[in-house]
Design brief:
35 residues, elongated
Amino acid sequence: MKKLILIFALIFISGVLASAQDSVLWRYVNTRWTA
């Protein structure tokens, strides 16, 4: 059960990051973290 949740979480996070890379929100988050 834990493995299934972990795999789902990894897929979800990777999908969010992939969709956010080209967005303005991603650039905003990057500038906030680096500043």
